[in-house]
Amino acid sequence: MNADQSAFRVLLDQQHRVITRVQALEHLSRGAIEHRLDSGRWQNVHRGVYVAHSGPLGRNERQWIAVLGTVGGHIAWLGGLTALERLGFQGFAAEPIHVLIPARAYTGRPPTDVVVHRSTRLPTSDVRSNAQPPATTAARSLIDAAQWQPSPEQAAVIILSGFQQRLARTEDVAQVLANMPRARHRAVINDAVRDAASGVTSLPEAEFLRLCRSAGLPEPVMQHRRRDTAGRVNYLDAYFPAHRLHVEIDGAHHQNVQQWWADMQRQNALWIPGDRVLRFPAWAIRNRPAEVAAQLRAALTIHPTP
How many degrees, rounded to 5, is the angle at CA 44 between CA 38 and CA 48? Predict the structure, then answer.
């Protein structure tokens, strides 16, 4: 095998057997390309984009087709939830494939199941050109995934989930957001970043922290790390250390009886030494904030037992 053949194989391997016509012509003649297509060894999957096998297309191939075929002759970047998917983001459907391109780039008809987003602000610091396929950074991807959501609530959940899964640092996301003054849901995204910096990992926790601030209550420590009586490490949703008061926020997962009982056992082991607990469902924090604040205020006026 000569050096050119070796480089061709490396390219195909890197791109999951997806190749543009321009790339193929650097290694093969026009006749050789047409022969591969006519014989069925290759597939013509989009204008100027081929797949060098005859089998079904998987997720990796479809993402490469999106990157290579959206802007004829130029690279697009995987963005939003699709870029986050490559980084291991969990809990959100990544269909369809999202790509980000400069605002003035010409696309024509994009590949099937590809959603094209344009941006006037796409600095080199926001892209990972050495990624395979090329994609935006974790920080930029989180903000784009959030601003492309139909509701501000979904935007906040995306941001908080990204921090919970440790995909990006708050300072990196804050820096990217500072360069995007027209981002959709910008105020909500900014609040979510600030909440995450305080230890918040879910939307109900963020709403609880804002409730404490608006009610003039002491600010709790979010996701406080504690060991129970058996030495196991646990994280408390919200904790007021000076009052030895722990607040547990019950979400939809408590509809599962076995999960609820497991949570109770864990919490009982933490409370046996003397901490107090208040429990609030997420819907009460959202829809009955005055009642939640009243109970919190009453609990915080009672001095803990030494």
Answer: 120
CA 236 to chain centre: 23
Instruction: Find the mean pLDDT for residues 47-66.
Output: 95
Beta-carbon count within 10 A of 180 CB: 18
Percent of the chain scored above 70 by pLDDT?
87
Q: Are 121 and 180 in contact (CB under 8 A)?
A: yes
Q: Taking the CB of residue 170, how many other CB atoms lie within 10 A of it? A: 17
Do the Cβ atoms of 169 and 250 come closer than 8 Å?
no
pLDDT tens digits, residue range 244-272? 888 988 765 444 555 655 665 666 665 55
129-133, 159-163, 247-251, range with the lowest pLDDT:
247-251
User: Who's near 123: CB < 8 A, 6+ residues apart?
Assistant: 179
Check residue 292 and report its DSSP letter.
Answer: H
| Greatest distance between any 2 Cα atoms in the chain | 86
Phi, psi of 122 (to 5 degrees): -140, 70
CA distance 92 to 82: 10
Mean pLDDT of 51-74: 93
Query: pLDDT tens across 79-116, in order?
Result: 999 999 999 999 888 789 999 999 888 888 899 899 99
pTM of the complete model: 0.78
Contacting residues for 136 by C-beta, under 8 A, at least 6 apart: 77, 78, 79, 80, 83, 100, 126, 127, 128, 144
With residues binned 3-state (H G I as helix, E B as strand, rest as coil), the percentages for the chain, rounded to 5, are 45, 20, 35
* 1, 6, 81, 287 from 134: Cα distances, Å: 29, 22, 14, 43
